[in-house]
Amino acid sequence: MDVTPAMREAALGGVPMFRQSNADIADTQVTQAPKAHTARIERLATAAMGKWKGDDVPRLRVVDTPEQLPASSRFDKDGNPSNAYQSAAGMYDGRTIWIVASKHTTDRAGIKKLLTTMAHEGVGHYGVDRIVERELGAGAWTKIEDAADRLRQNPDKASPAIRAVLAELDNRYAGADRTTYAREFMAVTAERGVKNGLLDRVITALRRWLRRALPDLRLSEHELRQLLVASDQYLRVGQTQQQRVQSRAALAFAQDLS
Fold first, then answer.
1. Among 57, 64, 129, 233, which one is most buried in terms of CB atoms within 10 A?
2. Residue 100: CB partners within 8 Å, gap ≥ 6?
3. Which SS3 state, helix, strand or coil, does residue 6 take?
4. pLDDT tens over the chain, length 258 residues
5. 100 in Cβ contact with 90 (< 8 Å)
């Protein structure tokens, strides 16, 4: 990934982009380092989000550590206490994209990870179906639903890998409506790494959206699929941004896997 002049300027903010070791920093500076680091991450994230347009751009909050995430992060989507937040690099709570500065760095790899975290939470904000509609045209998601329903009705015409997915969906989601079935089809095929034309359409839409929203983030085909796997809870929820705001937030985290 190329570090653009704008990203470098945002990261620098008057301090070195690549910090010296703590052994070379005075004790008082070590105490201030976390806040300075958070400020650099916030400048990077704010600069990146500057390319997000429209009246539905989410809020952005950057915190030092996972402990500063909102209190609701201590519970899973079913309301049960959970420690999952402790490994979160970011999260989306229905209104705001949260970034955990301590889980990111400002070197080349760190900036890519930050932008990937923002992409994950951005998918949560806009919703996969809305991204498909925006990037592939009105009715594009409906066509995906139609195709998934045809596979559901005629599994014998599918490949063995797709038939296995359909069998799992029939066991887990018998009687599901068309929209739910299509979302689950995408989620399961993404999880299993099963290539198919419907998933390819979603990947294409995601790539186009990223080119506009986060043009400095360059992901391979495999990385795009992994982003979709990481965002599978957003595929499954499928609510609009306004619906998520009006209901209790179903939290989803971008996990720190480093």
1. 129
2. 62, 63, 64, 65, 66, 69, 88, 89, 90, 256
3. helix
4. 555 555 544 544 433 333 333 333 333 333 446 889 999 999 999 999 998 988 889 999 999 999 999 988 888 777 888 898 899 999 988 889 999 999 999 999 999 999 999 999 999 888 888 999 999 999 999 999 999 999 999 999 999 999 999 999 999 888 889 988 998 899 899 888 898 999 999 999 999 999 999 999 999 988 988 888 887 777 766 544 444 443 334 445 565 545
5. yes
Residue pointed to by tokens 């509609």 = 133
What does the block give as tokens for 137? 């045209």
Encoded tokens for 156: 């014998």
Q: Per this entry, what is the length of the chain?
A: 258
DSSP state of 81: B
Pairwise CA distance, residues 173 & 167, whole Å: 10
DSSP β-bridge partners for residue 253: 91
Tokens of 114: 């930050």
Could you tell me which of 219, 202, 47, 49 has the C-alpha nearest to residue 118?
49
- CB–CB of 252/92 below 8 Å? yes
In the chain, domain spans: 5-125, 129-238
